[in-house]
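ARCHIVE CARD
SHELF: 3
SLOT: left
DATA:
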Amino acid sequence: MLQIIKGWFGGENKFERIWLLAKIEFKLRYYENKLGLLWALLKPIMDICIYYVVFKVIMKTDVPAFASFLFIGLILWNFFVESTTGTIQILQTKKYLYEYSNMNKIELYISQLFSNSIGFFFNFLMFLIFYNFLEKESMGMSLQAFWIIPIFINLFILSLGIALILSSIYIIAKDITQIWQVFVSLLFFLSPILYNLRVFKDALPTFHYLNPIAGIIINGRRVMMEKMPPDYGLLAWDMVYALFFFSIGLLVLNKLGAKAAEKL
């Protein structure tokens, strides 16, 4: 694994190339849409409206600042889903890039996640505006909000690791696409995206330590909405998860990805 990382960092102009690919990917995603970039902002807003009506208006949930509660949870969740689901077939759809150039396969994943990060940035900016200027129950911001940077890095590494694993499995088992879609649907309802944290912990004790996405969402809300530092134990545990999946992803890609162009 160390040899893989060392070999990747040994090249030149990698970050410039990755950033260029990320910008191209981001523009192409919305190129044919009439609303263009606005779709990147509308999707979480539409999701928030739906869940707000169901859980706040109909089910009368008692979560304070519920719209912002949903907002930050959904943009973190959507980044994870887009980064893992959207890269499952990347070795097939972009094999011309690594087959006919000196581009390393991992550059494809990083550029895809950077592209998703651009969308996340716009959504996060919308959250900041909404929470600080439109949310009636807002507690305002504090210096603890800067903890969102390591939390997002944690999410990025976790998503990258799982993306590497899923796309490598796709080389030998294309059914992984359907399996992952079902698993993601299950994971959505096993994460504290829609529920009060107290209710979530009562129903699934210690599960937030078994589900790294749950920990990331919990800490994201703590630092952005509650003026509190992250749960350091939970943050450390989630980082261990992220590094573990990333390590496994590198090893699996190195083993299965060598003949990806032939098998795909």
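SLOT: right
DATA:
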Amino acid sequence: MWFKNLRIYRLTREFTLNAETLNQWLEPHAFSPCGSQDSVRYGWVPPLGRHGNQLVHATNGYLMICAQKQEKILPAAVVNERVEALAQAISDRESRQVGRKERQNLKDDVLLEMRPQAFARSRLHFAYLSPRSNWVVIDASSASAAEELLENLREAIGSLAVVPLSAKNLPQQAMTHWLATSQAPAQFDFEHECELRNPKDSGSVIRCKNQDLCAQEIQNHLLAGMQVYRLGLVWRDGITFLLDDQLALKRIRFSSELLEKADNTNADGAAERFDADFSVMALELTALIKDLLKALGGASTELASVEEIVAKASSGQADTVARAVKEVTF
């Protein structure tokens, strides 16, 4: 359950659903396995797995949810080989070439034929909502996986006004300044990894691992105009991670001291164990995110969510109609 990657989103409207109500909204969208002809299924499962039956786990004001995605695995090489064999049989039998559209139809037939026997692969995607901080924190290595979870959550509860968390100072500019001055921000230290890019040439990339980031060699690249797009950081000697230019935290590692802190809660049973881990992790990540935003000049609130844009547009249309009615009336 300990998150390995963070994609953080800012709630632009107050989240008012409690754990019980949120659970009720998620229940109609609970996960069910793929049928014989399904290629993918997505739904909500208990964060506690087989040890729980609630789709929402609440502790200290945080709401943990978990989505399961199941996909049928059909190797492209196997499908293409079968399609090629069928196309060749038609060509030999009818002495003609098989066109692109007919090949696509053959592929559709092959997928229909093979899907019931395909292996199904399942993955769990954890996230938690922090209404007090106005954040949604998702354990996802890619933006597409995080957006998929948010889209399914939005479908389940009807509306979810969120935007990716952003800072007033661009991460790549701040990280470049930190390395150029050999000075990590308060509460942080440099790890031994970074990625440098030339902003004028996307193909110019330098990746450094197990290196002294304050060495002259790194400084020379910065003087040449390269910027830091990924930077390894350690927060309070407790959490190590890789920060990128999208304000995503990757390859998170929790210190043994933090893990022992959760272990020392004398939890009894799987549910209490999960609750202790979740509580310690969420509290530590909340403090980390706040320190990181402080180092980046604070959170930016300029970006509006889709829901806000639609609401403003609707409000503007209503005002226009009201003015038109008023003009006609008087």
